[in-house]
Amino acid sequence: MFGLVAALVLLAPAPPAMAVSPARAELGAPSASAFRAQAAALPPGVPAEPSGSQVVTVRVASPASGSGELRAWQRESDGTWRGVLGPVRVKVGTDGVGEAKEGTNRTPRGMFSLSQAFGRQPNPGSKLPYRQVGNADWWVSDPRSSAYNTYRHCTAGTCPFNEKAGENLGQAGPSYDYAAVIGYNTGKPKPGAGSAFFLHVDAGIASAGCVVAPRTTVVTLLRWLDPAAKPQIAIGIDDAT
Q1: Rounded alpha-carbon distances, angstroms, from residue 124 to 71, 113, 129, 204, 238
Q2: Does the pLDDT at position 237 exceed 70?
Q3: What average pLDDT does range 223-239 have in this prediction?
Q4: What is the predicted pLDDT for the residue at 239?
Q5: Residues ≥6 apart with Cβ < 8 Å to 116
Q6: How is residue 4 annotated by DSSP?
Q7: Separation of alpha carbons 183 and 79, rounded Å
Q8: Of 20, 108, 163, 226, which one is least surrounded by beta carbons within 10 A?
Q9: In three state form, how does the secondary structure of 176-197 look?
Q10: How far, in Å, CA of 15 to CA of 4, rounded?
Q11: pLDDT tens track for 125-177
Q12: pLDDT in tens, 69-119
């Protein structure tokens, strides 16, 4: 139900701008500079100015929380941020949110890119580069490999990394029917700092650090995210900067 509502919210037109009420006018209209400052206010949970015009926020109540709320925001031409999806209840790592590293089930805290997607199912209409994966597609979590925290294609038993320290994307089940890659530790991966963080489908399995959302929500996001808008995800803790 959350996913269906989210999809309808995403497709809904932006509400008309609200006029200043007479009571507000009696107090004096805000100055132009104050109005611009208000218009440029960041969405809740976004710690720094985004590089683009699309942001997904995931906020949890405390560092140990295993679940939180996801929302999506679009920056309009006048600089204002408009909510286009959510709130949707999602799972995060069973170890909560904070500093991620290999061997923990913690979701990384911070702002990261959402620049690529994949899934066991065909592309549902994503504008992001999308790869349909099978049993020869992997995400490498072997910190001794030069391919650490990257995608690789190889037949099982022939891969140049420890296959037990990685994920066979095609064999992972419906969780990876649709997914977006969270760009944590991906530019120049630091061995052991954590790998394989995705926003993917909730298949009823606890999260090892990924953001896990209803299937319809993930599909809706994949159809909305646009590389031209430089989409990012902000993962954080309520009442914390």
Answers
A1: 20, 20, 12, 21, 32
A2: yes
A3: 96
A4: 76
A5: 128, 129, 130, 131, 180, 181
A6: H
A7: 25
A8: 20
A9: HCCEEECCCCCCCCCCCCCCCC
A10: 20
A11: 999 999 999 999 999 999 999 999 999 999 999 999 999 999 999 999 999 99
A12: 999 999 999 999 999 999 999 999 999 999 999 999 999 999 999 999 999
Alpha-carbon span 127 to 130, nearest angstrom: 8
Domains of the chain: 2-11+51-237 (2.40.440.10)
What count of other Cβ atoms lies within 10 Å of the Cβ of residue 180?
Answer: 27
Both tokens of 169, joined, read 């994307």
Place of tokens 């107090």: 27
In Å, what is the CA distance from 56 to each residue of 52, 83, 160, 181?
Answer: 12, 10, 35, 13
Q: Are the C-beta atoms of 227 and 127 separated by less than 8 Å?
A: yes
Structure tokens at 146: 């030069």
